[in-house]
Amino acid sequence: MRQIQAIKGIRDVLPEESVVWQHINQKARETFHTFGYQEIIIPIIEVAELFLRSIGETTDIVEKEMYVFEDRDGKKIALRPEGTASVVRSYIENNFSRTSTFSKLYYIGPMFRRERPQAGRYRQFYQIGAEVFGFDHPMIDAEMLFMIDQFFHTLNITGYELQINSIGCPLCRPGFKEALKSFFIGRLAELCENCRRRFEFNPMRILDCKSTHCHALADEAPKTLDYLCDDCLTHFNKVQDSLKSTGIQYIIKPRLVRGLDYYTRTTFEFVSGSLGAQNAVAAGGRYDTLVEEIGGPPTPALGFSIGMERLYSLFDSISVQKKPPKIFIVALGEKGQEKAFSLLNQLLREGIPSIMDYSGGSLKSQMRRADKLEVSSVLIIGEDEINKGIVTLRDMTTKTQTEIPLSEVIERLKNIKSFKSC
Ligand code: ATP
Ligand code: MG
Question: What is the pLDDT of residue 420?
């Protein structure tokens, strides 16, 4: 029969990788909790309008990357392409601002974008992200960057660079857009087709274009920092002062505007040379007007998200301990299997990670499988053992064997401390 394969750009995270992912998630949770964040579990589907309104209708995500389908009642539903819009929706819907002046929330989960699959770019990918609502103070921007840095530190990831910029607010942005238009109007022929369209609707997007020629042109274009209003400039300078006091290294990247419309003021990316073309491992910024645009009270806010697949590729997984089962029960013959099965049940009831190979086979072949699984010990139960009322316990590290009366096995293994931890 014809084989069914996973959808293009969508992949499985196999057990060898998933243990590492769990380790990374655990470290993220620990770090975020230390900084006072709480987890929010947001839905994978939302009404499509949420993303049109937040991310922006003339962004790549909304124009060509979103998975949208019609529900049976005709409603337009989208698979979430990112997490911020959902967290903002939830923040408003659940009246977070009534009970607290600020909120710190994080999420972990899959996102969906119909991009061209390539290294570091999938159609279903995973993000670890966080949002803060209620503070416009520049110190929180620095604290957030400090937290990401701290998280990478706990994973022993090094060699990345923090790039920051400020893209202003609704007050100073129009002046910058005009300056951009005047710069590009004489150079339209040199822009890619996409950017010629961007010129009309969203000229700032041109600065984010990945095509090499637009990229080079954008380097000469007016810089956001030269057009900031006094408040935005003061904010940006204070973000930098606070960053300096945390001791984190950073560079200012004037072209950093981000690909989503909702950002204001601070934008940032953590990039790593070892990631190749898709070099951003984490990205985010402020979005002081978004909560209001989605129908909530005026609320300054900021957030970031980290791409799990890219983070994984920067992480040295050697340091993560595998969790093989502790005990492998080798059962020989039908009677041996019955005894072994009842022993297995008792071990599992005690919480001792154990497995039994139901396909049976010779002692030698079962031992080979136990070896491959890297278990700590093997229990052997064959006819001999049953007749003598014992089991043979083989320590796989020291390669020594002892015979234990069947009635004492569980008690003995229960008391070996390392067998308990899974
Ligand atoms: P990029 O410049 O790589 O397209 P982006 O600006 O679209 O990134 P965001 O929407 O801010 O990125 O997402 C934050 C992070 O999520 C990125 O820095 C990256 O690590 C990861 N990411 C984004 N899109 C993908 C994808 N298609 N596959 C894997 N990871 C992704
Ligand atoms: Mg993108």
Answer: 64
143 lines ligand 1 (CB under 6 A): no
- What confidence category does residue 415 fall into, taking pLDDT thresholds of 50, 70 and 90? confident
Estimate to the nearest angstrom the gap between the alpha carbon of 14 and the chain centroid: 16
CATH topology (fold) of 15-172+228-319:
BirA Bifunctional Protein; domain 2 (3.30.930)
Tokens of 246: 């945390």
Question: Is the model's pTM score more than 0.90?
Answer: yes
Ligand in nearest proximity to the CA of 122: 1
CA of 259 to the centre of ligand 2 (A): 7
- Mean pLDDT within 394-420: 88
- Please name the residue whose Cα sits nearest to atom 20 of ligand 1: 307
Q: What pLDDT was estimated at residue 213? A: 86
Which mutation among 13, 125, 162, 313 tests ligand 1's pocket best, with the greatest number of atoms within 8 A of CB? 125
Q: Which CATH superfamily is domain 327-419 in?
A: Anticodon-binding domain (3.40.50.800)
What is the pLDDT averaged over residues 337-352?
95
Q: Residue 73 carries which DSSP code?
A: T
Query: Do 335 and 384 form a contact (C-beta atoms < 8 A)?
Result: no
Does residue 313 have its Cβ closer than 6 Å to ligand 1? no
With the most atoms of ligand 1 within 8 angstroms of its CB, the residue from 160, 274, 278, 314 to mutate is 278
Half-sphere exposure of 277 (CA within 13 A, CB side): 9
Cβ atoms within 10 A of the Cβ of 28, count? 25
Ligand 1 centre to CA of 280 (Å) is 7
d(C-alpha 256, C-alpha 246), whole Å: 22
Instruction: Give residue limits of the domains in the chain.
Output: 15-172+228-319, 327-419
Average pLDDT, the chain: 94
Q: What is the pLDDT, as a whole number, of residue 421?
A: 53
